[in-house]
Amino acid sequence: MLRTLDELEGCTIRATDGDVGLVKDLYFDDKAWVVRYLVVETGTWLANRQVLISPISIGRSDWLDDIIPVTITKDQVRHSPDIDTHKPVSRQHETDYLAYYGYPDYWGGVDAWGEGAFPSGLASGSRSEQDAFRAARDATHSHDEMANHPRQDPHLRSADAVADYHIHASNGDIGHVQGLLVSVHTWALRYIIVNTSNWWMGHQVAVPVKLIERVSWLDATVSLGLTREAVKAAPPYDPKTRLDRPEEMSIHKHYNLPVYWDDVPTHARDDGGDGA
Description:
Blueprint: E1 2-4, H1 5-8, E2 12-15, E3 18-29, E4 34-41, E5 50-53, E6 67-69, H2 74-78, H3 91-101, H4 127-139, H5 143-148, E7 156-158, H6 159-162, E8 166-169, E9 172-183, E10 189-195, E11 204-208, E12 212-216, E13 221-224, H7 228-232, H8 245-254
Parallel strand pairs: 2-6, 8-13
Antiparallel strand pairs: 1-9, 2-3, 3-4, 3-7, 4-5, 8-9, 9-10, 10-11, 12-13
């Protein structure tokens, strides 16, 4: 199931014992292109504090009422570690945050969420099991390797900040970022929505994030491994309708890309949308 950034912002985060607040932004990893945290404004019950909610905490939602249920309590949110959402989130901040909720870290495995594609998998297991996983992982690396390859801070970026970034094709400018399409099962970013209004008739297209060559945060630009002609000839994106699976297949065929959902377990897929 794919949702736009605009759809996600404004959704209510509902704890097991009441509403926490409204989604204001998403922090995504610009290397894996996965949403790592939702930035939530709590409102008056918590002095309008902004908190981070990990997709690990998110339960199953039918999305009918713009409500995102989470498996934590308001009291847990109240006492969660303070993180300044206006500054970069360091790996140490993440470690403290995940340890507080009893979640293992996600950067120790080969997949988007540790050893799996779904964040909910990290919510299962006892604390002792999680500690054992960390110990076993760290034991596979020598002290020399740890010294020569220190853990890098994550490349967490604000989804709001990317909106309106200029987009460069291999042979010229083509427009700006209109939005993002996010899977709400794996919380992977699947597409950027490109608005070509300053180049070609206000055309909008959905471009798979795999075709992004680099993002310059200093210059506020996104560079694609595509020509302007390839973007112009792409299937148009209609922001008024839900992107369905046949349309996604057309997009991937146009760009000669393999479809991503072939790697997703059948039980995790939707009939009419993104299962990953």
